[in-house]
Amino acid sequence: MKRGQLLTQLADGSLIPDLAPVYGSDAPAAAARLLELTEEFAGTFPCGGDTRTLLFSAPGRTELGGNHTDHQHGHGLAASVDLDTIACVCPNDTSVIRIKSRHHRMAEIDLNDLAVHPEEADRSVSLLRGVAARFRQLGYALGGFDAYTTTRVLRGGGLSSSAAFEVLVATILNHLFCGDALTATEIAQAAQYAENVYFGKPCGLLDQLACATGGVLAVDFRNLDRPRIRRVQVDLASQGYAMCIVDTRASHSDLTADYAAIIQEMRAVAACLDCEVLGQADAARFRRELPRIRALCGDRAVLRAHHFFTEDARVSRQCDALEAGDLPLFLELVRQSGLSSYMYLQNVSTYRDSRCQPMALLLALAEDLLGNRGACRVHGGGFAGTIQAFVPLDLLPAFTAEMEAAAGPGTCYTLRIRSSGSVPLID
Which residues of the chain fall below pLDDT 70? Predict the structure, then answer.
């Protein structure tokens, strides 16, 4: 759509029906947000009103089960949520991609240089370069574009803001230059490649796959090239519950080593079982040979492997419970998952500073508030970020007030599951 036309139709509301399949009843608010985005784009990248201008959206995600199982080729359960990253995009007929994110410096790459730049690790420009490199490896001819992005996905909040950004970039490239040929899984794989190889953070595929696909997904990662996806229908509100995340507002900086240690220790145990990852290993053999593995790998690695085997099996039970409408069983399994992450996986606190344990504190408060009527757990990678809670609707106001009294105003979010993944909104 021409930029002038896009601005007019966002302003007069005529694009609201086009946005409704993604945003539902929030489409009017989304139109206002996209209008602001497009105006900011025009102020950053001045060009004529006849310029082709497109809008894209990629959701954040919430993990429902399978804490730290995906990178071991296990099973995971996740859902896309109604907090998203949006982009206003214009092809620029050059070899340069420029992306300006609100409150951040311009990220710019030349498609003639897609090598890994070690100095870019931990920066968004590395994700941009890595996604483009993966598309080039797949044989696609790419071109340049300018983009302006804003996000409602919490940064460092366990909702996969980095995955949403990666997937958004991949969706833009797929739509502009590949005729939408890549599947959601291939888009997710390109995003994961960028994060692993260029950004320098080890991660599994669950986050990217949820952002790219949408809805609630149970994923079997035994074959990473072709993960098996099971769609699960969930309607929490009809059963009297809301899904919340509470932001600790603790920093994720300097936590890459903590995340990497989980992967390294699980892989060390797997090696003792003649496997590369624990998803290939036999749990019964693990238990039989535990004394030998303990001596070789240490107790924490053994405990983390124990978490993997029990958590991996729990995902299928969670899916069955949701599909059967057995929410009490699902909530009990959520509690078990949280306890396992806390005790065995040990990704609640880093223990570098005994005075700073915000995730543990919020979990304690949430358990007290919910009693036996709800459930809470570690959310995502852990160590910082957010906790997740399933809250009875009649308790939601009190729960929100109490958690924000402890964590700060605006830290408790009630999330809705979004059915669509990363998509072009307006072309």
Answer: 48, 156-158, 251-253
